[in-house]
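All the exercises in this workshop are built on plain-text protein records. An example says more than a description, so a record of this kind follows:
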Amino acid sequence: MKFDLTMEDHTIILNALHYYKKVEKRGNFQQYNDERINELRDKLANQLVRDNSDIDKFVGLPNLDKFGFH
C-alpha cells in the first residue's frame, strides 16, 4: 500500500498513536495494546526513512549496526 503523506501528516499519526496508548480501550480495540501500537509506529518510521533517504547504501556497515540497521 502506498500513501502520499506529508511530514505533518506523519507527525499527526505518530502523536495520535502515542495518545491512543494512554486511553482505555473497549471491545475489539483491546487488541491494540502498547506492543502493537509501537510496532506500527516503528513500521511507519522505517518506511519514512527508507523512502526518503539513501540509507540502503549504508546498511550493513559496522558502525550503523549498533543503531539497529542490518
The chain has a mean pLDDT of 79. Residues 63 and 69 are 9 Å apart (CA to CA). The radius of gyration is 15 Å.
